[in-house]
Amino acid sequence: MTAAEHSPGSRNGGGHRDLEPAGSGRGRGIARVAAAVLTAGLVAAGTLVGATAATAATADETGAHQGGATAVLDGLKTYDTAVLHVDGKDGGPATTQDLPAGLFELDVDGGGQLKTYCVDIHNPTQDRAKYLETPWDQTSLGANGNAGRIRWILQHSYPQVDDLAALAGEAGTGPLTAKTAAAGTQVAIWRFSDKAEVEAKDEQAEKLADWLEKKAQNVAEPKASVALEPAAVSGKAGERVGPVTVRTDAGQVSVTPPADAAAGGVKVTDKDGKPVTEAADGAALYFDVPADAADGSAALGVQATTSVPVGRVFAGLTKSQTMILAGSSESTVTASASATWSEKGAAPALTAQKNCAKGGVDITAANKGDEPFTFELAGAEHTIAAGETRTVTIPVAEDQAYDFTITGPGGFSKNFKGVLDCLTAGAPAPGDGIGTQSGSEPVPAQTGTSSAGAGGDLAETGGSSATPVIAGVAIALVVVGGGAVFLLRRRKPQNSGE
Fold this sequence. Notes:
By secondary structure, the chain is mostly beta strands. It is built from six helices and 25 strands. Helix 2 runs antiparallel to helix 4 and helix 4 crosses helix 5.
């Protein structure tokens, strides 16, 4: 499906998004233009260089992902046609654009399947894109005062309500099929997520959309399927390092301790030193580090098989349409946390997460050692005193990939990567379009747009599936339009987790 642009107004007085995150100042279209001028995949990145006692190397393969389900897009599977109303360019006449509207399916790593709707109408999907369960505040829903209404719609419509006769009776729509129910639900969501002036082509689907829009109420964001807080801790050998708190919607999670060969005998315990193999929501986990352990690091993991809560957001690891969960089979969900320790000197623990409100990525450095931890980031030197924790926000342009390699003495290394995708667009830039993919066969991602009706085998895919990932070993400051970015050497695109 393709659309050049659409009205920023909401149909029938529908949902209006709150103010954009602070410091954004631009819609997605402008950000894309700026990105194209710079270079595909331009990244804000940094290197931390500590001046402390040595620690063993550690790599964070999941980066800023805070736990939960990880999945791969399998396509748009259950859908019908919607009509997007588009303002004319340069005062020209308004037009309309047909586009598919309905349910996507994603395959969960480790087992399971997700059904999702789009909350990002002008952003194309990418073929086989990898998606990560993500908190609302790290997506466009964080600044959307109607995000709770979207979750209400998901709870009260298809597929959560799979008795279509009952749904049609309550909404007063007339007969519904799975396709028209999915289309009507998606249309109602778009009116709140994107302020889109959109309607379902099918009469019954349109009645459903109107009913859902009118009835929707604000409900709270669901808890993560599983997460560990914080994702990194530090301390001294001979101590129990932590705590790391389990956050989960599942009844219980299994705990995987570090491998003894890699961790030097480190165990996962409770606060009293009792080994832990299973944990529930709120449980506190510790790394029990032997007194004779060499300076080093270790990681623990938790895993559960559970239904992911309806309303959880799934954001693309590469640039791809943001999704919101409408239904989940029993699926594998995971989270990990790491610990570093040293006999003396500084003991840094580093985490990162997207900060949509500030338009960047927060790098948090905690120092549980007995000496200061000093590092250089973005051209400025920062010193974290013993026992102190500090957060530094690195600016990242909207829609841009980032890849932070954070290093310290003795081979200490942490990596965080992802895409900052915090906004929806009132009107896309020229050449942009709405893109998606049906599930009948793979669609190679490509630059630009194409068109296909909802009844065809394939809906179109736009954009590039190979968002470049750029690694940093040195920082060169480039000033563009009053904003600062860091231009670093390229490396091959990667499809690994965030």
